Amino acid sequence: MVKVAVLVSGGGTNLQALIDAEKVGKIKNGKISLVVSSKVDAFALERSKKTGITTKVVLKSDFCDNESYNEALIELLKKEDIGLIVLAGFMTVLSKKFCKSFNNKIINVHPSLIPSFCGDGYYGLRVHEEVLKKGVKVTGATVHFVNEITDGGAIIAQKAVNVKDDDTAEVLQKRVMKEAEHVLLPEVTSLFCEGKIIVKNSIAYIKK
Ligand code: GRF
After folding, report:
1. Ligand 1: does its nearest atom lie under 6 Å from the Cβ of 111?
2. Please, what is the Cα angle at 121 between 118 and 125, to 5 degrees?
3. 51-55: long-range contacts at Cβ-Cβ below 8 A with a sequence spacing of 24 or more?
């Protein structure tokens, strides 16, 4: 059984999708064992406490720099013997050392079809605002491995969502979450725990 840690900073709807999937047996060979929040008031904390998952708040402000903050996270995740780290709205840039310590063991969900609308500064509503500004007709979500380049790791799975003429960024964000993020993230988490994802020459493949 792979021990899964979910790192959060906000509302935690993706965490909820994972919790719900686990409840109905859709996370095969995996168990959400730890939730780590970088914010004390993240609603995601309420969701994890309700289900009895071990929950920790690790605040950046308690450390002198980003490097020592990352060290503390590495230590915690190693101590808990975590086999998969899921970034579900975690608003902190992970250090090189963190990424190397868990090479191809960290996944992130991004609310666009990478390589569009991603990279530094593309988070939250901003992604969807830029999608609408550009007038693209299809957007979606991507689950990818995490390396030291923002949104730059191997792409594991993507799901498309149509953009409508009357969409606002808020409406589009909700649709991308519901139709794509909340579907993809549990699916990929399960595939990882089942040992079905392989990476060759920086490209991820799913074993049939
Ligand atoms: C999601 O849009 C996710 O794609 C991005 O951060 C947001 C987190 O939302 N990385 P939630 O906290 O899971 O509701």
Report:
1. yes
2. 80
3. 51/19, 53/19, 54/80
pLDDT at residue 208 is higher than 90: no
Whether residue 169 has its Cβ less than 6 Å from ligand 1 = no
Average pLDDT, the chain: 97
Nearest residue (CA) to ligand 1, atom 6: 89
Residue 9 exposure: Cα atoms within 13 Å on the Cβ side: 11
Peptide bond into 186 cis (omega under 30): no
pTM of the model: 0.97
- CA–CA dist 37, 150 (Å, integer): 20
Structure tokens at 205: 């493949």
3-state secondary structure of 161: strand
Q: What is the 8-class DSSP label of residue 60?
A: G
Q: Which of 114, 198, 187 is nearest to 208 (CA)?
A: 198
